[in-house]
Amino acid sequence: MKNQRTQERFDDFARVVCSDLCIVSGVLTDISENGFKAEFNAPCEIDEEKEYTVQLRLSRITADTLELTVQPVWSAFTDGKTTIGFSILHSKDSARLDQYIKLLRADKSSEDDTGVASYDSSSLFI
Predict the structure, then answer these.
(1) Can you give the pTM of this predicted structure?
(2) What is the DSSP string of the chain?
């Protein structure tokens, strides 16, 4: 299947919290300026016409969470997991998200040059 995305996607890791969608936290698997994909280890109640507020606790920045307004674009349920593709709408933390995407882009460029990605080890979470 050909990739139709106009924005570059970055593999990343973050905790995704949206109690309106799922009772358990999910895991972000990739992100771009306009969207991200998350996996939840449970069935989720998804309304693709509704906007949701999600909190992302990103792996490469301080412990502060990003609060984003999102809308599900697609979803799939297999092997007890729900995978959801989200479109990111204008949010109160849009500027912080832009900064984070710039960090990921710089890390990818650095990794392409050296084979090593940089990260802030004080902000990693378990």
Answers:
(1) 0.79
(2) -----SSPPEEEEEEEE-TTT-SS-EEEEEE-SSEEEEEESS-----TTS-EEEEEEESSS-SPPEEEEEEEEEEEEETTEEEEEEEEPS-TTHHHHHHHHHHHHHHHHHHHHHS-----GGG---
Residue 11 · residue 3 · CB < 8 Å: no
CB atoms within 10 A of CB 97: 20
Specify the pLDDT at position 29: 92
**How far apart, in Å, do the first and last CA atoms of the chain sit?**
34
Residue in this structure with the two tokens 């996996």, named with its chain if needed = 39
Measuring CA to CA, how many Å separate 87 from each of 49, 114, 118? 12, 32, 27
Banded model confidence at residue 49, pLDDT cuts 50, 70, 90:
very high
- Distance CA(37)–CA(11), nearest Å, equals 10
At 73, the amino acid letter reads: V
Residue identified by tokens 């449970």 is: 42
* Amino acid making up residue 118: S
